[in-house]
Amino acid sequence: MNDEDRLLPWHEQSTAGLIPEAGNARKYETGGWRTYLPIRDGEKCVQCLRCYFVCPDSSVLMSDEGKVLVEFDLRYCKGCGICASECPPKAQAIKMLYEADLEKGGE
Predict the structure, then answer these.
(1) pTM, full prediction
(2) What CATH number is attached to the domain comprising 30?
């Protein structure tokens, strides 16, 4: 483990509740305990960026050209479904599917 990935012991922590950096799951791969998996239909996506801005774990990836959703970063996606619930009703480009069903080959 390198120093960048190391969690600070209590005596090296900031005092008075200071938060030195934005909190997210970048240091912790949390995708392993996901139950539901986001599936995006590229034909329906209207590139509104809602999913990108509401994802609490920055799991919605964009291309270098600024187009939303090259893919989901499943190392960090917890399957919370916020992206799907915020997808515009007319588009409904993101569906949450039960991951165990996908592993069995069903949908």
Answers:
(1) 0.67
(2) 3.30.70.20
